[in-house]
Fold each of these.
Amino acid sequence: MTSIPAIDIRDLRVDYGNFVAVDDLTLRVPAGEVFGLVGPNGAGKTSTFRVLTTLMEPTYGEVSLCGVDILTDIASARRLIGYMPDLAPVPSDLKVWEFLEFHAAAYGLGSRAARRDRVAECLEEVGLTAQRESWCKALSRGQTQRVVLAKTLLHRPSVLILDEPASGLDPLARRELRQALRKLATTGATVFVSSHILSELAEMCSSLCVMNRGKLLASGTAEQVRDQLGRNKRTLTVSVLGRHQEAAKWLESQAEVHELLLAEQRVTFDFTGNDDAQADLMEGLIQQGIRVRTFEEKRSSFEDILVEVAETNRLS
């Protein structure tokens, strides 16, 4: 694993007239990660991707891919990139293998036999070997997305940039896409994927960041993002067998327990500690001689968090 980041963005700004789409974004993505970029519509995701894919120049800033400056060496940068835009079209009058072999030829991938072998490899990577002879027009939405992903992989890019790849997919197709992306990361490729659905990225990515109104709000693992956004509170419900008053009294004495409510054998409260503190809390109850029957956790969904963030920043 190289110490050079796959994506290195420094002080990136993108203006459209008087509108600031990306506001001094600084972000580093290590090689071999599935890294998510999430934010509501207008957060600056697409503008960031357009700069990364060399489709537009920023107002100012520095951007490099695997050590290559994309602003001064566009040709080298483009050889590193595999770009999958949102709702990428496929021709209806071609079979899957024909569509992919056309692009393989455009990439200059050697002889016809070599191109055919590479097409077969990419179809296997995205789980579409059985659809090789299918007409593109006969594919489902999920299959079409995976065919476009296969096309994106043909030239073995070091950095894959995927804009809303799961848009409109059903749950099964999203799961298949997640599996394909994780498999790609194990080969050393870096996957940079955007979505406005934070829970989708939390399941798919090893790390992620949150943008809103052009600014980076948080970056890291899903738990680190929760902490940075101040949304790490969870609601816990403990069901005990007997001694419920004692359980409630002990819990109420803990610093990270708030808004406790006792209802028969169930104690419900807000908890602001981390996962280790939660484990300690359960262990402490047992050490008190309390017989714990169930221990349930409820947290704000990532969608709820993103809505709160967007609303807070809109009003600020």
Amino acid sequence: MKYKNILITGGAGFIGSNLSLKLIEKGCAVTVLDNLSPQIHGDSSPLYNSIKDKVRFIKGTVLSHDDWKEALEGIDVVVHLAAETGTGQSMYEIEKYTDVNIKGTSIFLDILANEEHNVKKMIIASSRSIYGEGKYECPSCGVVYPTERKDVDMKKGDFNVKCPHCGVDTKLLATDETSKIHPSSIYGISKQVQEQMFMVMGKSLNIPAVAFRYQNVYGAGQSLSNPYTGILSIFSTRIKNNNDINIFEDGKESRDFVYVDDVVDATILGIEKDEANYEVFNVGLGEATDVNTVADTLTKAYDSNSKIIISGNYRLGDIRDNYADLTKIKNKLGFEPKVSFEDGIKKFTAWVNDQEIVEDKYEKSIKEMKEKGLYK
């Protein structure tokens, strides 16, 4: 690789540990800065254990100038993954999310602007959440970017996305990188700000910056104990504890599920290729899969008797649908996702079947949201 010394913040996490191992295979020297958050890692983290003897590990926080300075020694490329990532949780832990995601990023960029360093490139993990409801087509108004859905409609069981101009139901389209950015959660806002900070300061300091708007990342190694992570892990933990699956809305809401190996490959292309410099890219499978399909697939894969309950409940801040248009990343970086949803689920569930059953904390997370008025 062109660059040999790489810092990954949050490098003991799900994406970061997989990226670390792949970069080591390519001959890179990897430094990891991670606080080993109990919400993500629990009492013992297999992700951390998989890398601890292979990387230069610094247990620290992105909120510490000193930890950043230590981690940046001799570094060519920074991949900034460290972040608080729960969409629902972000709506009532606002200070925590803005501190870690925005202030943590500002400390890093302040060092680049004012102190000596060797950084030649920087990658920021952005998110599909910055698009809010994404891109749709109205039969009368054409391409539109709807605002958040109304509580009054969802209370009546109408979860469809409406045209912001005429109010009729719309048709989902793939979201490309030129689509309107209007996040509907504090988490999404923080990722938008991170991305903009990287791009503005990258150009100002002449340090190439690359932003990857990851879709819903899943795969072997994902935290099964974190009730604020993706639905594949949440549903799997529910099933393994013989609990029923509560599906929000009508179950027809959809996401773009991308396997972690593909996310790692895309990120490495961003590190290696000059064509990525100062660009933003969607990273996904490029397909929309609804939640009902996810639940059915998992219960069959685990041969489970857990009931699938379509509750009609909903969370404020959630989007209805989103899937990625991958045209740009295919054309500029040559990225093609290799793992289909079907093959990815087989890999994921096979891994889950080999894990010890962990405590199901889902009900606790729902209780927290109910207390804050965010769960309806």
Amino acid sequence: MAQEKIKLTKKVYDKSSAGDLIDRSFSEIINLNDSINNVNLDNNIKRLFTLYNDIFYDIPKVGKQSHTTLFKQSRDYIGNYIDSKDAEIEALIDQIVDLEQKLSNQDQPNEEHPFYRNGTLIVDREAFWNIYYMDRATRRKLGGNENSELFKDLLAATGYKGDNWKDGVTFVSPQVISKLTPGPDFGPEDLGASETNVEEERATFEGSFNYNALQDGELNPNNYPITEYTIPSNYDPSGFYNSFQLANYNNDITRQIEQTNIANISSYDKYREYLRNRIIIVWQSEKRFEILKDKYENDTEFGFTESERNKAQILRDAVMPKIRQAQETLVYYKRLWTFVKNKSANSANAKSLMLEAQANFEDNINTPVTDNERNDYGGWNKGQNNFPNIDLEGLTSSTGEGGNLY
């Protein structure tokens, strides 16, 4: 039998041409036609991740087909990807910038005015209550006057030990003072060894006034009883055996009437005294918040660093609700004080005033405060006449012009 030769041929492709013939994309693994079938899609995804895990360490870290490429494609597909480390990095950068600024300020010697050295206490010779502390070549205004504790502490810090404070300060004309560069106001917190942060300073006033007039039961005059004694209807002087017995009975009735009158006057006085004390307390709180607001606004404009100015703005915004709350409380107090502003001269007067206060209480306490009513107390020094027979002016004038918070 003749042998037949069969010729076998093998076509060999080089590396460059093989890349054009073989599809190495994900379509080799996932059939796009299967995307309409959830079961097939799930299976293909599982196959993909199985293969990915098998060759994970064989995939290059960088390059066209690498972990870097997969990461970038996935990140771009997700969109708006935020790495938690980025926020940490930004916070650390801000902290570094703040520390560098503080370090820069420490490295630089404090500026000093050529005539008024830092630490000098300057007083306006035409208005003694205008006192300034020279710091970094700026004038920093003090709250209060020469009688304030802050002034006394600063005067002692300068080394002055004399009896007359005028010998320890420098008197300057208002014209010259106006030419000095203004700085942030100077308060007791500036005497501290360390600077307080926003949270610490907010805590000094946020927790100091959580009072709600609508929940204060002692403001209700109905809780201070007013009674009236009436002679019994069966009272018959002719029914007594003798004048001595009649006199004893009359004396007993008179005594009970007097006791009732005394009790009514006591209720009036107790209610009036409680309301008076509350007015003074809230008035002083409003005053404190207003002074803090003025200080923060001053620091916002004249603070030495951006950090100080930003801190002052935050604190100014935080104290504003406290001012509003205190002013609204004073509005309620004004409404109630109208009925008990005068001391009770006699039992009949006390009784009628308390009955009137009781009859109007619900309407006064439940009527919302208007902007016009609240505006009567702007600047804490405004609206003192709303509380006759309470010397609110005396509470401030004793501390000098503008009062002294501290």
Amino acid sequence: MPTGAITDVPGIEVGNAQNEEALTGCTVILARKGAVGGVDVRGSAPGTRETDLLNPINLVEEVHGILLAGGSAFGLDAASGVMRYLEEKKIGFNTGIAKVPIVPAAILFDLGIGDKDIRPDAEMGYRACVAASKRTPAEGNVGAGTGASVGKLFGATLAMKSGIGTASIRAAGIVVGALVAVNSFGDVVDPQNGEIVAGLRSGSVGPIRVGGNREFADTVEMMKGLAGRSVLRLASRSNTVIGVVATNAKLTKAQATKVAQMAQDGIARAIRPAHTMLDGDTIFALSTGNKSANLTLVGTLAAGVMADAILRAASMAKSAGGLPGKG
């Protein structure tokens, strides 16, 4: 199984906070000294904050934190707690009047398996910052992955529990790490052999027998067979993969954006199908260092560690909310 963590990248800290009974939480990725940031939104149902700021043509060059949260759009409130924490530490963009922390955010929908009335809020975002450190972060049912699930062609009926995962790689003197919360419509697959790791399980949905006697039904194959049927309306519209790739390679905003784009290829390798109309896949990229590196190499490594982190998110998740987990 892949090893390493996004915190192997100098200048990156990770903190989690969650409500285990309500099955929701948030994860903060801090760059206290600032990091050049980029973003790529590939899914068609995103929930985000401050992503326009990361456009290479816009003014601000650095961000100070990234928030990943459950709770659907309500979870964006947790970013206010991250800002409050950073302001207390006197970290932010210097306007000449005040230092304003720059904290882009993305959310996933986890209201369906926990308590829909409890979501990440500013206090939870603040607690995630207090917990942030350079240590290897926990994986599975923590932070933004607390209420994550995968394989939701039939909603939660035959889905599986997923979570949050991290991985890193070193090559040519640079470090590239990824951290991702996996809440996808599709199945998580191992790119090495194409086998499903977690996803749509075989079973019965009313009169429909799904997947025969196999462990996994295979979402893509089921979609082929169900094309045109009203049963496709059962498909969950509450999916997304949200994550961050970070590196000590020196990048401009435009280059960080390209790395985020290439990191999305890791989603396409490890999730089938990916980037659907029912997902809001959003990946941020952060550059914290001054190491000279070939951009194509950095992006290629980012795609690889993103796929590795997705596999860990699915493999480390424990059963919760009535959904079985591999962990």
